[in-house]
Specification:
Blueprint lengths: L1 H53 L29 E6 L6 H11 L3 E2 L3 E2 L11 E4 L4 H10 L4 E4 L16 E5 L27
Parallel strand pairs: 1-2, 1-3, 1-6, 4-5
Antiparallel strand pairs: 4-6
């Protein structure tokens, strides 16, 4: 009887050790799986972060398209410095070239002393901006503030009294359409002056 009890105890201890061994193995397997899952999750998070950095606009690229998305580029307005403007009165309205010169100065343009247009061209109904070669950008900036008037390269001699622009690179040949009026393209909130002056024009 003692022998049977002893063998029962041995079997019980053997089963207990097998149970500990199995539960230890299961614990190790679960730990390994948890580590692998953690690694995969971190890898996906890192991939998402690098994709966001490469594609900040959130644009979905077509399969095989490795090109970066086109981001909007800030546009810059033409410069209002680096050139001088001469206003010549071709409107027949006394003092209008002086008024226009003052208005352009208030918009941060550099303006020389206004003069009259050459008498041979007569009274003009439409304002035109002329420019010396290389100053088309300046002429565009002036034309924009005048409401989008036409620009042209200046002829030689220039259509002004004396035929010369002097120090100016841009000529505003002022017609009746803008004589004595506010600048149509002036920025909101600008303080455009249109006071009458006694200078020529």
């Amino acid at each position: 009887m003692n022998t049977q009890d002893g063998s029962s105890q041995e079997r019980g201890s053997s089963n207990a050790s097998n149970g500990v061994s199995v539960s230890t193995t299961v614990s190790v397997v679960v730990a390994v799986i948890a580590v692998l899952l953690g690694f995969l999750i971190l890898r996906d998070i890192n991939r998402d972060t690098s994709d966001s950095a490469a594609n900040p606009a959130g644009t979905t690229l077509a399969p095989g398209d490795s090109s970066a998305p086109t981001l909007p580029v800030a546009t810059t307005l033409p410069s209002r410095t680096g050139f001088k403007i001469l206003v010549a009165n071709a409107s027949g309205v006394t003092g209008s070239a002086g008024q226009m010169s003052t208005a352009l100065q208030s918009e941060n343009f550099i303006v020389t002393q206004p003069i009259n247009a050459d008498a041979t061209i007569g009274k003009q109904s439409v304002t035109i901006v002329y420019y010396v070669a290389g100053y088309e950008g300046g002429a565009t900036a002036v034309a924009d503030i005048l409401g989008g008037v036409q620009i042209q390269p200046v002829a030689t001699p220039a259509p002004v009294e004396g035929g010369s622009l002097g120090e100016a690179q841009v000529l505003v040949l002022l017609g009746t359409d803008l004589a004595g009026k506010l600048l149509p393209g002036a920025l909101p909130g600008s303080t455009t002056e249109t006071t009458t002056t006694t200078i020529a024009g």
